[in-house]
Design goal:
By secondary structure, the chain is mainly alpha-helical. The protein has helices at residues 12-15, 39-52, 56-63, 65-72, 76-94, 97-104, 106-123, 130-158, 163-191, 196-228, 248-277, 282-294, 296-308, 314-333, 339-349, 352-362, 367-385, 387-399, 403-423, 429-433.
Length: 437
């Protein structure tokens, strides 16, 4: 989820504020060298492979969480900490991506990010304690955080005339990687001998493959950067845009983002365990998580288009919250009997992510404002989301069941909906802060 950082620039409302740069030249330098003809196809492959690797490190672990906890002797509290690490890494490392991009170029940072993902996934299965497992996971998640932020920058820089198409391809690949890891990790682990270590190690292969196309892309971008003697294409000055902290809408968006991210990471980390404790088999629980995740594929296209035609997006936030409330209620009273229905309902509710990304694009007038609002909302939002999975793990351990954790998860949807209504109002951060475009 950086799910993400400048994806809001892809919305038609944001795109209309400035003319799109030509494909053959970096927007910051009219003297930049033309892109080599091979670069476009290789970039498309690289973007798809990178997006496929943005979630398997998380959802593959969710599918085997019980085996990992047992194998490493984790308590419920430590297990909750593991599920909180993605949000922490996305907040801490994601905020460094613009600075790294300005210094090294976005392609080079994405290449390094994919290498970090692969290294973490290679090391993690060989950990003999929770601390080592946590450190290796953090390495992979740091790479994911950087790539989360910069993939949309890559799209905006090299495909300005096909932003919508490339964003759709990127979003679909991300959702596919998320659901694929959740669905096939358990049966694949069984086929490979039953060890959770082998089941997690397999995903390092996909990450290693994803590094390959970025090596020539990063080299070409570095040569172009030297020839143009200019900052990396797509980089944005850190001081551009309005004073975000003075905007109530910015804070509403940040808090809404934080609560929807809380629900998403609780779902990815704990939903299979909820079903397994209700008597559902491990393989079926993984497929149920995949169903929840795959709902984001079609709705990632539908919700932004619908939200973009509305002046006020609060009604969509209310609808998504209602789906979540029904899903959590169902998990409380009949987790196994209605498992497929609850998985579908929670999958719809988790599509608050494309909604908040769209609202970020609608709540700023200029590209500089959109980028700064996106960075603020996502960084603050991920920080807000950190305690959620940890709290759920602690409640699960001390209560001995899921009644109390599910009640807390449902209650969190109430302020989420209220914040969605506030963030969905037809206003911009520039107007609130008294800034001009």
């Amino acid at each position: 989820m950086p799910d993400e950082e400048i994806q809001t620039l892809n919305r038609p409302e944001a795109a209309r504020t400035v003319p799109a740069p030509s494909r053959s030249a970096a927007p910051t330098s009219p003297q930049a060298q033309p892109d080599p003809t091979w670069l476009g196809p290789v970039l498309i492959v690289g973007i798809v492979l990178a997006a496929l690797n943005l979630r398997p490190a998380i959802t593959s672990l969710g599918a085997l969480f019980e085996e990992v906890r047992t194998g490493l002797g984790m308590s419920g509290t430590v297990a909750g900490l593991i599920t909180s690490v993605p949000a922490l890494c996305f907040a801490v490392f994601g905020i460094t991506a613009p600075r790294l991009s300005r210094r090294f170029g976005p392609a080079a940072v994405v290449c390094a990010g994919m290498a970090a993902v692969a290294a973490g996934l290679l090391i993690r299965p060989f950990a003999h304690g929770a601390a080592g497992f946590l450190a290796a996971s953090a390495l992979s998640l740091a790479g994911i955080a950087l790539t989360n932020v910069l993939l949309p920058v890559i799209v905006k820089r090299w495909f300005p005339d096909r932003v919508g198409t490339m964003t759709g391809l990127y979003s679909m690949a991300l959702a596919l990687g998320t659901s694929l890891a959740a669905a096939v990790t358990v049966p694949m682990t069984s086929a490979l001998g039953g060890s959770w270590r082998t089941g997690l190690l397999v995903w390092a292969v996909l990450a290693l493959v994803a590094v390959l196309p970025w090596l020539p892309v990063a080299a070409a971008a570095r040569r172009q950067k030297r020839a143009a003697d200019s900052p990396a294409a797509g980089a944005v000055r850190a001081d551009a845009g309005p004073k975000i902290v003075r905007s109530r809408t910015a804070w509403a968006l940040a808090c809404y983002f934080g609560l929807q991210a809380t629900g998403a990471y609780i779902t990815m980390g704990w939903l299979p365990q909820i079903f397994r404790d209700a008597g559902v088999s491990a393989s079926t629980a993984g497929v149920l998580l995949a169903v929840t995740m795959v709902m984001g594929v079609p709705l990632a296209f539908v919700i932004p288009n619908l939200a973009g035609r509305m002046k006020n997006q609060g009604a969509i936030a209310v609808t998504l919250g209602a789906f979540g409330l029904v899903g959590y209620t169902g998990l409380h009273f009949a987790p196994a009997a209605g498992a497929w229905a609850w998985a579908l309902l929670l999958g719809v509710s988790n599509c608050a992510f494309p909604l908040v990304i769209t609202m970020i694009g609608l709540r700023a007038k200029s590209p500089a404002g959109v980028v700064k609002l996106s960075a603020f909302a996502q960084s603050v939002g991920y920080l807000i989301s950190i305690p959620g999975p940890l709290l759920i793990g602690a409640l699960y351990q001390h209560s001995g069941g899921w009644d109390l954790p599910l009640t807390v998860m449902a209650c969190l949807l109430v302020p989420q909906v209220a914040l969605g209504i506030l963030a969905g109002r037809d206003r911009t951060i520039e107007d609130e802060c008294g800034m001009r475009d």
